[in-house]
Amino acid sequence: GLWVILRPGPYACAEWEMGGLPSWLLKHPDIKLRSRDPRFLAPARAYLQEVGRVLAPLQVSRGGPILLVQVENEYGFFGDDADYMRAIRDALLAAGFDVPLFACSPKDVMQRGYCPELLLVANFGNDPKSSFEALRKFSPRGPLMNGEFYPGWFDTWGQPHNQGNLKTYLTDLETMLRMGASFSIYMAHGGTSFGFSSGADRPFKPDTSSYDYDAPISEAGWVTPKYLATRELFSRFLQPGETLPEPPAPNPVISIPAVMASGFASLMDSLPPPLKDSRARPMEDYDQAYGCILYRYRVPAGPREQLRFEGLHDIAQVYLDGTLVGHLDRRFQQKQLELPARAGEARLEILVEAMGRVNFGAEVHDRKGIVGAVQLGGKPLGEVEVFRLPFDEAMLAGVKYSSKPVQGPAFHRATIHVGKTGDCFLDMRSWGKGYAWVNGHHLGRFWNIGPQQTMYLPGVWLRPGDNELVILDLTGPQKPEFSALTTPILNELRPELDFARKAAGAP
């Protein structure tokens, strides 16, 4: 019963990993994303052709629900090439779309890449009048539309949970209703960036897995006070004969009592065969998209000296002969640390975690792992062994567990029995930093610094009886305990646990 405004990109932003673009584009070291570079435009056209094959038959012109299709997304923030926008428009036309096509941008960048062949809409979170006045300079006639109206905002690790101003939100909504303008509430329904799909804000602030967004409908699909206030406002603007149906009941929820992990496997004992290279390269050069990557060097005897990286994306743990030396964190632009003296040749290992590619701005050119030169004591490090750790289904299936707890980065496994299924929220407060899987479903990232301290687990991913839970903790838990709550914890910061913040001297 819903009409659809389709926004297929190819760049979509949405705090999604790399804005929805595939990481393999970055194998070209000099590629120009979101441009007429053939290495970008050819796969973009192929993608849109497939979008058309699946979705063009569902347009309103053919009896389906798709009313409008967006060309690119907020391109004015990125570039100023109207011919690129025309190329994406032409690709959508060639893919079979015949409903109106539109572009969106905030008022300050509407002129950049403006393409008069497209309907233009404005994106904003407040002050509708000024944005629509700017829009009228480009579209003197026709509909007024807000492509993204923000009721809240997304969260990033280590920063407070965002909550929108309800009074301002309702006032601006009412203004648009009285103007007869169209709008799309973004997000109307909060969500979850499962798996590795969460991106990062610029210059580098990785997003939480929860995309609750303080939206009118919560991450788990619950009605909120903001929803009820929105509904009451809409009830005053119904057309003759229109009614508002009652919202559906929330999905049932369950709690899961605490169960200790019974299986353990060191990540360093679960490595695949290495690749050998003359120098360290980014993850994408090794055909890896997500997860972690381990670089292993043999370094000579020597005094205490500086280990320096030209670029390190995103968070690294540095080991010398198996002993943790320290962490480096891109959030604080940490690119060097002091390596202890070595009496003989030693094994240097750098475990780098990719925390989601930047999804907005020029920074979407975001390669992961070691990026550029590595120096020890001012001398370049050369030959290296590289271990790809994508944490995909094949890798997880090969992990060998034992009953003996282990230290350092490790997999922890437990079997949890549930009598009846329901939505719940894994309680991650006793864990450090890493990833969680339930019956093979990847719930996303966790990090004890917050603000997100629970992980949404849809009840459809549980089954009556035994369920397998696996947690990969890269820093180690306080207690390897599995449990689940009936409500989320999305606003609990613990900066005292932030290893990189301490090293950077941040408050």
How are the secondary structure elements laid out?
Blueprint: E1 4-6, H1 38-55, E2 66-70, H2 82-94, E3 101-105, E4 119-124, H3 128-138, E5 145-149, H4 166-179, E6 182-185, E7 191-192, E8 200-201, E9 205-206, E10 210-211, H5 225-235, E11 256-260, E12 263-266, E13 275-277, E14 292-299, E15 305-309, E16 312-313, E17 315-320, E18 323-329, E19 336-339, E20 346-353, E21 369-370, E22 374-376, E23 379-380, E24 384-389, H6 393-397, E25 410-418, E26 424-427, E27 433-438, E28 441-447, E29 454-457, E30 465-473, E31 481-485, H7 499-504
Parallel strand pairs: 1-2, 2-3, 3-4, 4-5, 5-6
Antiparallel strand pairs: 7-10, 8-9, 11-31, 12-25, 13-24, 14-20, 14-24, 15-19, 15-22, 16-21, 17-18, 17-20, 22-23, 25-30, 26-29, 26-31, 27-28, 27-30
Helix pairs in contact: 1-2, 4-5
How would you describe the overall organization of this protein?
- The structure is a single chain.
- With 507 residues, the chain is an alpha+beta fold.
- The chain has helices at 38-55, 82-94, 128-138, 166-179, 225-235, 393-397, 499-504, and strands spanning 4-6, 66-70, 101-105, 119-124, 145-149, 182-185, 191-192, 200-201, 205-206, 210-211, 256-260, 263-266, 275-277, 292-299, 305-309, 312-313, 315-320, 323-329, 336-339, 346-353, 369-370, 374-376, 379-380, 384-389, 410-418, 424-427, 433-438, 441-447, 454-457, 465-473, 481-485.
- The strands form 8 sheets. It has a 6-stranded parallel sheet with strand order 1-2-3-4-5-6, covered by helices on one side. It has a 6-stranded antiparallel sheet with strand order 13-24-14-20-17-18, with no helix packed on it.
- Strand 1, helix 1 (38-55) and strand 2 (66-70) form a beta-alpha-beta unit.
- Helix 1 (38-55) runs parallel beside helix 2 and helix 4 runs parallel beside helix 5 (225-235).
